[in-house]
From TrEMBL:
<dbReference type="GO" id="GO:0016020">
    <property type="term" value="C:membrane"/>
</dbReference>
<keyword id="KW-0328">Glycosyltransferase</keyword>
<keyword id="KW-0325">Glycoprotein</keyword>
<keyword id="KW-0808">Transferase</keyword>
<feature type="signal peptide">
    <location>
        <begin position="1"/>
        <end position="28"/>
    </location>
</feature>
<dbReference type="Pfam" id="PF02485">
    <property type="entry name" value="Branch"/>
</dbReference>
<keyword id="KW-0732">Signal</keyword>
<dbReference type="GO" id="GO:0016757">
    <property type="term" value="F:glycosyltransferase activity"/>
</dbReference>
<protein>
    <recommendedName>
        <fullName>Glycosyltransferase</fullName>
    </recommendedName>
</protein>
<keyword id="KW-0472">Membrane</keyword>
<dbReference type="InterPro" id="IPR044174">
    <property type="entry name" value="BC10-like"/>
</dbReference>
<dbReference type="InterPro" id="IPR003406">
    <property type="entry name" value="Glyco_trans_14"/>
</dbReference>
Amino acid sequence: MLSSPFLVTLTLFLSLPLLLLLSPHILFSPPDADDLALFRRAAAPHTTSHLSSTPKIAFLFLTNSNLTFSPLWETFFSSSHTHLFNIYIHAHPPIQPPGGPFPRSRFIPSKPTSRASPSLIAAARRLIAAALLHDPLNLYFALLSQHCIPLHSLPFTHNYLFKNPTFPHRSFIEILSHDPNLEARYFARPPMLPEVPFSSFRVGSQFFILTRRHARIVVRDRRLWNKFRLPCLTPEPCYPEEHYFPTLLSMEDPNGSTGFTLTRVNWTGSWDGHPHTYTAPEISPELIHRLRHSNSSYVYLFARKFAPECLQPLMEIAPDVIFRD
């Protein structure tokens, strides 16, 4: 007859998969307390801005290196348009030269980030929370990387978002339900049920522009975040930063987003999950005009991914091409 200790050990071993399925939060450390406190403050009701005030765009830079294109962005953030924007930077390691890379930029407390990990989601949520708390006039939240460039002037960008009569006040985030790798991406994650059935799982671009209403949904969320913050079962093709935001907003407000991103990315010749990186010889007025246009009713406001060597040729064409709408 089998001994009682043996039966106990065998029972625990056989029940481990069920434990993983039903209670993953028991086996993983909870989110950082300071993050939770930040998100709670940002999700709390705040005084709404006066209708007579000019709404602003919160530019959220998610970077892991120096902002190579800061001279181009400094021109974009002209001192005559400071009433139209705020700038927030999450950099690791912390990068804050004297005066900051942009005028009036705000550095938020940063933590290490790595590709294809929940750390990028957490960093984006910190940026969004900081912008929500800082200024009630922030009504759009544009997440960008150090490899992004503007394709238009700031006044054009602001007018396009706030005064375009062709669409209501909606978020611009890519939301795909028919991606060819959707099933592989879903099952590369820890068990998503019951919170996220496969029919609700979405993928999309890592970079987006959210309305203030959707920004508050992001920082208020706990249920889906507790699923997406778990480590992937396999590194490929699991990219949590491309899964969490499209899935959350599709489930919470399916009609509140355009399903389209305003950041142009060239996936031709992509490798190891990275898009095409433009080099200096490719920079031309024709490239900028081509990057602006899409096959939909929307235009692109930003583009990625550009090598550092592109800065000088971009600065040369900026006055007469990029910032001349």
